[in-house]
Amino acid sequence: MVVNKPQTFPEMKKLSLILTALLVTILFMNGCSESAKHSETPPAEHVKEEYQCPMKCNDAKYDKPGTCTVCGMELEKITNG
Questions:
Q1: Helix (H, G, I), strand (E, B) or coil at 81
Q2: What is the C-alpha to C-alpha distance for residues 45 and 29, in angstroms, rounded to an integer?
Q3: DSSP state of 2
């Protein structure tokens, strides 16, 4: 049977400092990764506008307004983002 000896106060203090430093490091790294996610979002002016038939006859997407080549309906604007 293995008996663990009780930890002394200096050992417990050292362990709590190490755990606190580890926790602060993890929280800091998580905060840094969150700010990086926000900077990767493209600006609104770079969102490409596309047009598609409201009936989705052929699932084709067009880069300018017009009429559907299958049913002749006016294409509706959709945003790709």
A1: coil
A2: 31
A3: -
User: Measured at the alpha carbon of residue 49, what is the angle toward residues 69 and 35, in degrees to the nearest 5?
Assistant: 150
CA 26 to chain centre: 19
pLDDT digits over 16-34, tens only?
Answer: 999 999 998 888 887 766 5
pTM reported for the whole predicted model = 0.40
Give the pair of three-digit tokens for residue 74: 């006016």
Task: Specify whether the CB–CB gap between 76 and 68 falls below 8 A.
Answer: no
pLDDT value for 33? 61
Q: Which amino acid is at 7?
A: Q
DSSP string covering 9-65, please?
A: HHHHHHHHHHHHHHHHHHHHHHHHHHHHHHHTSPPGGGPEEEEE-TT-SS--EESS-
